[in-house]
Amino acid sequence: MNYLTKAILTSAAILTATSVMADSAKSLDHAEKATKNRQAVFTLLGSNMGPLGAMAKGRIALDAKVVEKNATRINQLSLMIADYTKTDTSGFNVKSDALAKIWQEPKAFTKRINALSKASAHLQMTAKTADESAIKKAIAGVGKTCGGCHDDYKAD
Protein backbone atom coordinates (compact mmCIF):
# COMPACT_ATOMS: atom_id res chain seq x y z
CA MET A 1 0.00 0.00 0.00
CA ASN A 2 1.52 3.31 -1.05
CA TYR A 3 1.69 6.49 1.04
CA LEU A 4 -1.21 8.19 -0.74
CA THR A 5 -3.51 5.24 -0.22
CA LYS A 6 -2.55 5.06 3.46
CA ALA A 7 -3.12 8.81 3.88
CA ILE A 8 -6.52 8.63 2.22
CA LEU A 9 -7.62 5.63 4.27
CA THR A 10 -6.37 7.19 7.49
CA SER A 11 -8.13 10.46 6.69
CA ALA A 12 -11.38 8.67 5.90
CA ALA A 13 -11.17 6.60 9.08
CA ILE A 14 -10.58 9.65 11.22
CA LEU A 15 -13.44 11.53 9.59
CA THR A 16 -15.78 8.60 10.01
CA ALA A 17 -14.78 8.28 13.65
CA THR A 18 -15.31 11.98 14.33
CA SER A 19 -18.52 12.35 12.34
CA VAL A 20 -21.20 12.11 14.96
CA MET A 21 -24.72 13.33 15.22
CA ALA A 22 -24.86 17.08 15.50
CA ASP A 23 -25.25 18.62 18.92
CA SER A 24 -27.52 21.64 19.10
CA ALA A 25 -26.01 24.71 20.67
CA LYS A 26 -27.26 25.07 24.24
CA SER A 27 -27.26 28.86 24.35
CA LEU A 28 -26.51 31.90 22.25
CA ASP A 29 -23.06 32.11 23.87
CA HIS A 30 -22.40 28.46 22.97
CA ALA A 31 -23.60 29.07 19.39
CA GLU A 32 -21.38 32.15 19.04
CA LYS A 33 -18.29 30.30 20.30
CA ALA A 34 -18.98 27.30 18.06
CA THR A 35 -19.48 29.60 15.08
CA LYS A 36 -16.26 31.49 15.80
CA ASN A 37 -14.26 28.25 16.00
CA ARG A 38 -15.88 26.84 12.84
CA GLN A 39 -15.13 30.05 10.95
CA ALA A 40 -11.51 29.96 12.13
CA VAL A 41 -11.00 26.56 10.50
CA PHE A 42 -12.50 27.79 7.24
CA THR A 43 -10.44 31.00 7.36
CA LEU A 44 -7.28 28.91 7.67
CA LEU A 45 -8.42 26.70 4.80
CA GLY A 46 -8.91 29.80 2.64
CA SER A 47 -5.56 31.28 3.59
CA ASN A 48 -3.84 28.10 2.42
CA MET A 49 -5.97 27.69 -0.70
CA GLY A 50 -5.51 31.27 -1.91
CA PRO A 51 -1.84 30.96 -2.95
CA LEU A 52 -2.55 27.58 -4.56
CA GLY A 53 -5.28 29.08 -6.71
CA ALA A 54 -2.98 31.93 -7.70
CA MET A 55 -0.30 29.42 -8.71
CA ALA A 56 -2.76 27.31 -10.68
CA LYS A 57 -3.93 30.40 -12.58
CA GLY A 58 -0.37 31.58 -13.25
CA ARG A 59 -0.72 34.77 -11.18
CA ILE A 60 2.30 33.77 -9.11
CA ALA A 61 5.10 31.31 -9.82
CA LEU A 62 4.37 27.72 -8.96
CA ASP A 63 6.47 26.60 -6.00
CA ALA A 64 6.17 22.86 -5.34
CA LYS A 65 7.40 23.23 -1.74
CA VAL A 66 4.73 25.81 -0.95
CA VAL A 67 2.13 23.63 -2.67
CA GLU A 68 3.14 20.64 -0.57
CA LYS A 69 3.13 22.68 2.66
CA ASN A 70 -0.27 24.23 1.95
CA ALA A 71 -1.73 20.91 0.83
CA THR A 72 -0.55 19.34 4.09
CA ARG A 73 -2.19 22.13 6.07
CA ILE A 74 -5.43 21.82 4.09
CA ASN A 75 -5.43 18.09 4.70
CA GLN A 76 -4.89 18.56 8.43
CA LEU A 77 -7.63 21.19 8.59
CA SER A 78 -10.00 18.95 6.63
CA LEU A 79 -9.70 16.43 9.45
CA MET A 80 -11.00 19.08 11.86
CA ILE A 81 -14.09 20.13 9.91
CA ALA A 82 -16.36 17.42 11.33
CA ASP A 83 -15.43 18.39 14.88
CA TYR A 84 -15.91 22.11 14.33
CA THR A 85 -19.21 21.76 12.46
CA LYS A 86 -20.71 19.30 14.93
CA THR A 87 -22.52 21.99 16.93
CA ASP A 88 -25.72 22.98 15.14
CA THR A 89 -25.95 26.75 15.42
CA SER A 90 -28.81 27.14 12.93
CA GLY A 91 -31.36 27.77 15.67
CA PHE A 92 -29.57 30.91 16.85
CA ASN A 93 -29.16 34.33 15.34
CA VAL A 94 -25.40 34.22 14.82
CA LYS A 95 -23.49 35.91 12.01
CA SER A 96 -22.64 33.03 9.71
CA ASP A 97 -22.80 31.99 6.08
CA ALA A 98 -23.29 28.34 7.07
CA LEU A 99 -26.55 26.88 5.82
CA ALA A 100 -28.65 24.63 8.06
CA LYS A 101 -28.14 21.87 5.45
CA ILE A 102 -24.82 21.13 7.17
CA TRP A 103 -26.74 19.65 10.09
CA GLN A 104 -29.77 18.47 8.12
CA GLU A 105 -27.68 16.40 5.69
CA PRO A 106 -24.79 15.04 7.80
CA LYS A 107 -23.96 12.11 5.50
CA ALA A 108 -23.77 14.32 2.42
CA PHE A 109 -21.69 16.90 4.30
CA THR A 110 -19.33 14.17 5.53
CA LYS A 111 -18.88 13.02 1.91
CA ARG A 112 -17.81 16.57 1.03
CA ILE A 113 -15.30 16.60 3.88
CA ASN A 114 -13.93 13.23 2.76
CA ALA A 115 -13.56 14.55 -0.79
CA LEU A 116 -11.46 17.46 0.48
CA SER A 117 -9.29 15.13 2.56
CA LYS A 118 -8.72 12.85 -0.41
CA ALA A 119 -8.01 15.70 -2.86
CA SER A 120 -5.59 17.43 -0.49
CA ALA A 121 -3.74 14.15 0.21
CA HIS A 122 -3.45 13.65 -3.55
CA LEU A 123 -2.10 17.19 -3.94
CA GLN A 124 0.50 16.55 -1.23
CA MET A 125 1.82 13.58 -3.16
CA THR A 126 1.61 15.29 -6.55
CA ALA A 127 3.60 18.27 -5.27
CA LYS A 128 6.52 15.92 -4.62
CA THR A 129 6.73 15.14 -8.35
CA ALA A 130 7.46 18.76 -9.35
CA ASP A 131 5.34 18.09 -12.48
CA GLU A 132 3.80 21.54 -12.95
CA SER A 133 0.90 20.33 -15.09
CA ALA A 134 -0.01 17.55 -12.66
CA ILE A 135 0.28 19.91 -9.70
CA LYS A 136 -2.04 22.45 -11.32
CA LYS A 137 -4.54 19.68 -12.07
CA ALA A 138 -4.38 18.48 -8.45
CA ILE A 139 -4.84 22.06 -7.17
CA ALA A 140 -7.93 22.29 -9.36
CA GLY A 141 -9.18 19.08 -7.74
CA VAL A 142 -8.89 20.62 -4.29
CA GLY A 143 -10.53 23.81 -5.52
CA LYS A 144 -13.42 21.81 -6.96
CA THR A 145 -14.08 20.16 -3.59
CA CYS A 146 -14.05 23.57 -1.88
CA GLY A 147 -16.34 25.14 -4.45
CA GLY A 148 -18.78 22.25 -4.39
CA CYS A 149 -19.12 22.50 -0.65
CA HIS A 150 -19.57 26.28 -0.86
CA ASP A 151 -22.31 25.79 -3.45
CA ASP A 152 -24.28 23.45 -1.21
CA TYR A 153 -23.51 24.58 2.35
CA LYS A 154 -22.58 28.26 2.30
CA ALA A 155 -24.93 31.19 1.77
CA ASP A 156 -24.10 33.51 -1.13
Automatic annotation (TrEMBL):
- Domain of life per record: Bacteria
Task: List GO molecular-function terms, semicolon-separated.
Answer: electron transfer activity; heme binding; iron ion binding
Q: Where is the signal peptide?
A: 1-22
User: Mind listing the UniProt keywords for this protein, alphabetically?
Assistant: Electron transport, Heme, Iron, Metal-binding, Signal, Transport
Q: How is the polypeptide modified once translated? A: Binds 1 heme group per subunit.
Kindly list the GO CC terms recorded for this protein: periplasmic space
Which sites bind heme c? 146, 149-150
Q: Which SUPFAM superfamilies match?
A: Cytochromes
The Gene Ontology biological process terms listed for this entry are: electron transport chain
| Record-linked InterPro entries | Cyt_c/b562, Cyt_c_II, Cyt_c_prime, Cyt_c_prime_subgr
What's this protein's name? Cytochrome c556
